[in-house]
Amino acid sequence: MLRAAIIGLGTVSSVHYAGIKQAQNGELVAVCDIDETLKTVYPDLPFYTDVETMLKNEELDVVHICLPHYLHYPITKLCAEKGVHVLQEKPLSLDYQEGVCVKELAEKTNSKIAICFQNRYNATSQKLLEVLSEGSSGEVKAIKGLVAWHRADQYYIDKPWRGKMDTAGGGTIINQAIHTLDLMQLIGGELTACKASLSNITDYEVEVEDTAVANFTFAEGTKGLYMSTNAYATDSSVEVEVVTDQATFTIKNYQLFKVDFEGNVESLAVDARAEGTKSYYGPSHATFIQSFYNAIEADTDEYVSAEDALPSMLMIDAMKKSSREQRTIEMEEIKNDKSKNRCARIHG
Fold first, then answer.
1. Is 56 contained in some domain?
2. I need a labelling partner for 295 at 20 to 30 A (CA). Which of 134, 141, 152, 323 fits?
3. Domain holding 165: CATH number?
4. Is the pTM of this model over 0.85?
């Protein structure tokens, strides 16, 4: 059995706890958080307030990092350099260049680093990617991703790091809708350019955007339209639409539909619903965790790696730069921008 620990006992940690409990080859043996009052959440487990102390005292195989975004890379680095495998919550990093640091870290250590894009494992996502790869519907012409959710002012007041650019790296684009960006790039392939506008249509006193609109261009000529907001009245179903030569495919309300050009509608897949969690997390955390544990035991690369997660950070950085400079951004500009040099900053 793999010995696992959770670092960070915030909102999403309970989903990881449930996934570890369901895993056939893993057990939770320790937890860590700086808030000592959370010790009562897992009263039967060793509780630590310091990651280094936990790594020293516990014989761990894998850690689940459920921390604020700005802590993802430094804590991943600390664990990986101790030879512990890492399952890190999204996002990969604060920005693209820091994401490159994580990729390089995975390459130079013996630790596997997985990034939790669990929605890739949804039945609807899997079926859509399968159908598109078969090619019977023709080339992908367009991809649309829509996320209209609600976040009250209290969401940022309760955890102020969420509203600051230096600690969150963005708002809706990196915290709520990054899974949609990830699926869009899986479908569209290599990204070449982006034109975007980020804004705030709520009156919250935050640095990060609550609304985003972007056009993406992919290398094979596919066009992508992305829209997300935290300013809706509720958490509406995420929608992903793919237009091909022969049909339109839509994921919405946990189902995948195919509509041909004669108007015939076919349901291709339905997602399972995860019990005891927020529906918008998706149903596949447990599947993702089990898959990563299997990859650790079998020593395979069948998981979402730091390299796999880099395109989502490329999209996020391109949107921020495009909105800030009010122009189309070529993706090579983001890849070649070494100005932030986050690896050096963290290394001291």
1. yes
2. 134
3. 3.30.360.10
4. yes
